[in-house]
Write a structure and sequence with these properties.
Keywords: Ligase. By secondary structure, the chain is an alpha+beta fold. It is 16% helix and 32% strand. A hairpin with a 6-residue loop joins strand 1 and strand 2. It binds adenosine-5'-triphosphate and manganese (II) ion (2 copies).
């Protein structure tokens, strides 16, 4: 699901920050965000901008972010973590739409995109048969916790590389893609992986594999790899329009000789029934380092063992990410 980068939300909670007299700590959805004192009362609507909102130039309400390039980032103010931005609904200059309404477009906000598209390598748009890779942040979709409760589930490490998708069409053509584009065969890292694993041969028609490409000169190579490699996190059967469940997924990757993202926990039975599905608990699980390194991990991704759809996520698969707050602060995501 495309997350709502900018939407109308409710201020659920406000509290003082010791030693600060002009700002307060607010709770909006699952986020803690610092707001100006006097701007909101508990229960008020606000315009909430999630992290990575790129605000437009030339609007009064966005001017204060000019020094930071008009980009909403994780910040620490007076020792308090602030994730996102809450502004009064008056910036909309008209009627206030209901809570949940997406107001990104009328406000002229776009998503900050750190990596430019691999221009010359682009061959075609992303194949329509395959869903693009994406994960919702838990804090933006707290309802998923109730949807997961009682079900067996697993936790993988979120790798900080770049997304790659490989799809074999029903007539046997291999399509290799970056996050948003199908790439022309050549020397790109994506096609290098296609060759390394001989995907043109071993991938069954109608199937797509999706993974994180990691290694030297990809992001910061936090896994400290000597060579680029692919870590698969999803296998999609385009004929049934279903992702493989966890055990079929593992078997599929083993059969094709592919690596998967690290599986940190598989929680089943009694342990799953009594698991503490709280935001705080997940934030703890998201901390730590990539194994064998001293590098902070980006976070974790959580999914049920048996694929389920999520009403909270508008009917797409139940799956979400929890970003390690230590990582966010260090890397100013
Ligand atoms: P946001 O808009 O919330 O910042 P984003 O679009 O920048 O998200 P990421 O923050 O990188 O994307 O999170 C989703 C991506 O994480 C997926 O598209 C995938 O490439 C990557 N990823 C890395 N490790 C995993 C994993 N273990 N399971 C699923 N996806 C993973
Ligand atoms: Mn990423
Ligand atoms: Mn991101």
């Amino acid at each position: 699901m495309e997350r709502k980068l900018v939407s109308i939300q409710k201020v659920d909670h406000l509290e003082d920050i010791p030693g600060a007299d002009s700002i307060l700590r607010a709770r909006v959805m699952g986020w803690d965000v610092v707001v100006r004192k006097g701007e909101f009362r508990v229960g008020d609507a606000c315009v909430f901008f999630e992290i990575d909102s790129q605000l437009p130039e030339g609007k009064d309400w966005a001017e204060f972010l000019r020094p930071r390039g008009f980009r909403v980032k994780t910040a620490r103010l007076r020792g308090v973590l602030s994730q996102g931005l809450a502004l009064p609904v008056s910036i909309l200059g008209g009627e206030v739409p209901p809570v949940g309404t997406d107001v990104r477009e009328p406000l002229g906000v776009v998503k900050f995109e750190p990596t430019p598209p691999e221009g010359s390598d682009v061959a075609a748009p992303f194949p329509v048969e395959v869903p693009k890779t994406d994960e919702i942040r838990l804090q933006s979709a707290l309802g998923v916790l109730d949807e997961l409760r009682g079900h067996d589930f697993y936790v993988t490490t979120k790798l900080d590389g770049t997304s790659a998708t490989f799809f074999k069409t029903l007539d046997g053509t291999l399509v290799a893609c970056s996050r948003n584009w199908s790439l022309r065969p050549g020397t790109s890292k994506v096609w290098l992986m296609a060759q390394k694993y001989d995907l043109a041969t071993v991938l069954p028609p109608g199937f797509a594999i999706q993974g994180e490409l990691c290694g030297p000169s990809v992001q910061k190579n936090r896994l400290a790899l000597d060579a680029v490699d692919l870590f698969v996190f999803s296998v999609h059967d385009t004929r049934t329009e279903q992702y493989l469940g966890h055990s079929e997924f593992l078997a599929f990757c083993t059969r094709l000789g592919l690596r998967t993202v690290p599986v940190e926990h598989v929680v089943t039975g009694e342990a799953a029934r009594t698991f503490d599905h709280s935001l705080e608990h997940y934030l703890k699980l998201a901390q730590g380092t990539y194994s064998g390194t001293k590098n902070r991990k980006e976070g974790i991704v959580i999914r049920p063992l048996v694929e389920r759809t999520s009403p909270t996520l508008g009917g797409s698969r139940l799956s979400f990410k929890v970003i390690n707050n230590d990582f966010l602060l260090k890397d100013e995501d």
